UniProtKB/TrEMBL annotation:
Domain of life of the organism encoding this protein: Bacteria
Entry keyword set: Membrane, Transmembrane, Transmembrane helix
Protein's recorded name: DUF2178 domain-containing protein
Residue spans crossing the bilayer: 12-34, 40-63, 75-96, 108-128
Length: 129
């Protein structure tokens, strides 16, 4: 689907990918709880909800390609800072979990953490200086 407005296309595609994510996650959880699969089927079902995340990444990259140069630079700067924050936080959590023998955050939350960091960067990175 190609729309004239990149923001509209981005929003629609993200909604589709997130709906697919939610559907696959709920379906996998219900199937696993009801049928208790093992082996490759269990691993396949466990990975299934992560596949739409690739679609959201592709959608974000496509959006970057379709906006003007100024906005592309602003978004890129925000993405880089959000990625750095995510790496920093995950590394710190990893060391705390390792040294203190705690479980603080499951790895599947890293993607959500990235978008939270991205939201924070949007509040502070307003220009491309």
């Amino acid at each position: 689907m190609t729309l004239k407005n990149p923001a509209t296309e981005y929003t629609i595609h993200m909604m589709v990918w997130m709906a697919l994510y939610a559907g696959l996650l709920i379906g996998a959880i219900l199937y696993i709880k009801a049928n208790h699969p093992t082996g490759p089927l269990l691993y396949g079902l466990a990975v299934l909800p992560a596949l739409p995340i690739g679609g959201t990444i592709f959608t974000a990259l496509r959006f970057l390609d379709r906006v003007d140069e100024y906005f592309r630079l602003l978004l890129s700067k925000r993405f880089i800072v959000a990625t750095g924050l995510t790496l920093f936080i995950c590394t710190a959590i990893g060391f705390v979990e390792n040294f203190a023998e705690l479980e603080i955050m499951p790895l599947y939350l890293v993607y959500a953490l990235f978008w939270a960091c991205y939201g924070v960067t949007c509040a502070f990175i307003r220009t491309v200086k």
